[in-house]
Design brief:
The complex is a heterodimer of chains A (269) and B (225).
Chain A: H1 2-29, E1 34-40, H2 52-65, E2 69-74, H3 78-91, E3 97-103, E4 106-109, E5 112-115, H4 125-131, E6 133-134, H5 135-143, E7 149-155, E8 173-174, E9 186-190, H6 207-218, H7 224-239, E10 246-249
Parallel strand pairs in A: 1-2, 1-3, 3-7, 7-9
Antiparallel strand pairs in A: 4-5, 4-8, 5-6, 9-10
Chain B: H1 2-14, H2 19-31, H3 36-55, H4 61-80, H5 88-93, H6 97-109, H7 113-140, H8 142-147, E1 158-163, H9 169-179, E2 181-185, E3 193-197, H10 202-211, E4 215-220
Antiparallel strand pairs in B: 1-3, 1-4, 2-3
Helix pairs in contact in B: 1-2, 1-3, 9-10
Chain lengths: 269, 225
């Protein structure tokens, strides 16, 4: 009798385990159709920023409210940042929409844009290649994915002391980010024009991110081109044209942050 | 007889006859009146020579040459010296840059002005030659040669492959050899390689690579692009 109970218990547990495994596999197989990776770097030892962490939290909340599966990271070091980006590129290939948002320091060198992890010091051009995350390669690798569309938002063009004219030793390294032409199926949005500097903002979040999240709440149904135009208009109005966001889009289809039940985007009012 | 007449005739023309010679000449002309014409010709020639000599400067040749040299030197010094009285502007301006440079060369290097000009001309010719060569160098575009003239975009049957982080190089090589593949691009920071499969079925190669368990990503990029 005891043996029969043990056997029955084994069968039940085995069945339950198998059932749970089947559910898990099914859940895994059904990858989220819209995924977002958010990175905010603020704790730079020689150039700390006040807002990126708040920016990431604000954007994460807005995207989750729109149904995105969000992964947010704060203050990533070099190895962590590269590994995070690598995993996202490799792990989100089945998604319908991939979104990457970055807030922190960035720079450009010879036409490539680079994102600055925390805990690194850039003292030469070689350091740029060895101690940063290559935003240009990120965009290229995302655009190489055949399925879905990509949205890359970079609020990274803030003033860094390495660009002080007195200490400037790296001629090819420039402030701001380079103009990054969006490859096929991709939208790239910068918080300011290529080569220009963005404002961290006087408030808790940056000027750009405030208008980005406001538009995510108020007009997520707009096609992304119109959506980012709305963000740009808000930033330009608030900064008196001192900061002008910049976008590049090469989408073949229509894309919006919250399509209607038919999968269609709304129209601008 | 004729020689004596000629000599006395020249003396007569010069006005240096002695009394004895004058008497001899008078007697001779009485005996030979035809010689009076010769005597008059000699007298006329003597007068003409006197006029010519009087027209010449009184200085002997060397003295005249020395005086001319002194006068020339004085004129040259007067030209080189700054004007004693000049306008305020001219005094302030002083010698030009070219003059000072020329003086410096002349004083420090001992070059004459002509030699300096020749050197400047040589430098200009060399600069022109270098400019032409540089222009031809640009036009030839050696950067393409240095970078390799091959199209940087990989062509052929391609796979996009990301190997597992813990895969050893020997395992990676073995996996590539198994499908007859070669790395033609990557990896960047994301760790994605472009692998060209030399021969055989591309999809079968991708399947074999996935089955090997060394990869995180294997994607077929179509039959070349």
């Amino acid at each position: 009798m005891r043996v029969a109970r043990l056997l029955a218990g084994f069968v039940v547990r085995t069945f339950a385990g198998c059932a749970m495994a089947v559910v898990a596999v099914a859940a895994g197989a059904q990858a989220p159709s819209r995924v977002a990776l958010l990175i905010g770097n603020a704790a730079y030892p020689d150039a700390p920023l006040r807002n990126p962490l708040n920016d990431v939290r604000e954007v994460a909340a807005s995207l989750r409210a729109l149904g995105f599966s969000v992964t947010a990271h704060e203050n990533l070091k070099l190895g962590e940042m590269r590994e995070t980006l690598r995993k996202f590129v490799l792990g989100s290939r089945s998604a319908d929409v991939r979104l990457v948002y970055y807030a922190g320091h960035g720079l450009q060198m010879r036409g490539h844009s680079y994102l600055l992890p925390v805990g690194v010091r850039i003292e030469s051009e070689t350091d740029v290649l060895e101690r940063t995350a290559d935003a240009t390669e990120l965009v290229e690798q995302l655009s190489a994915i055949e399925k879905g569309a990509n949205v890359v938002i970079i609020d990274a063009c803030r003033v860094h002391p390495m660009f002080s004219t007195r200490t400037r030793k790296m001629w090819a390294v420039k402030r701001g980010l380079s103009g990054l032409a969006a490859p096929s199926g991709t939208v790239v949005a910068f918080s300011t024009r290529p080569g220009q500097v963005a404002r961290d903002g006087d408030g808790d979040i940056s000027v750009y991110t405030r208008h980005l999240t406001r538009s995510l709440r108020q007009a997520p149904e707009l096609p992304v081109e119109v959506f980012f135009k709305r963000v740009r208009a808000g930033v330009v109005a608030e900064t008196g044209s001192k900061q002008v966001p910049w976008e590049s889009s090469d989408l073949s289809g229509e894309l919006c942050f919250r399509p209607d039940a038919k999968g269609q985007c709304g129209r601008a009012p | 007889m004729n020689m004596q007449f000629d000599e006395i005739s020249r003396k007569a023309a010069a006005g240096t006859l002695s009394d004895e010679e004058r008497e001899w000449l008078a007697n001779h002309l009485r005996e030979h009146p035809e010689r009076r014409a010769d005597l008059e010709w000699d007298a006329a020639l003597g007068a003409r020579l006197e006029e010519k000599i009087a027209a010449l400067p009184a200085m002997p040749g060397w003295e005249r040459t020395e005086r001319a040299l002194q006068a020339e030197q004085a004129a040259s010094e007067a030209q080189a010296a700054p004007p004693a009285v000049s306008t305020k502007r001219a005094a302030k301006r002083g010698p030009g840059l070219l003059d000072r440079l020329s003086d410096w060369f002349a004083s420090s290097l001992g070059f004459a002005f002509d030699a300096q000009m020749a050197a400047v001309a040589l430098v200009l010719v060399q600069a022109g030659l270098i400019g032409v060569l540089a222009w031809q160098y640009e036009a030839r575009d050696d950067s393409a040669i240095r970078a390799g003239t091959a199209d940087p975009t990989p062509r052929g049957p391609l796979l996009r492959v990301s190997f597992r982080q813990d895969v050893r190089e020997s395992e990676l090589r073995r996996a590539l050899a198994d499908i007859g593949g070669e790395i033609v691009g990557g990896p960047g920071q994301i760790g994605v390689y472009m692998v060209r499969v030399r021969e055989g079925d591309l999809r079968a190669a991708a399947q074999r690579l996935r089955a090997g368990g060394t990869t995180e990503l294997v994607e077929v990029l179509g039959n070349g692009r």
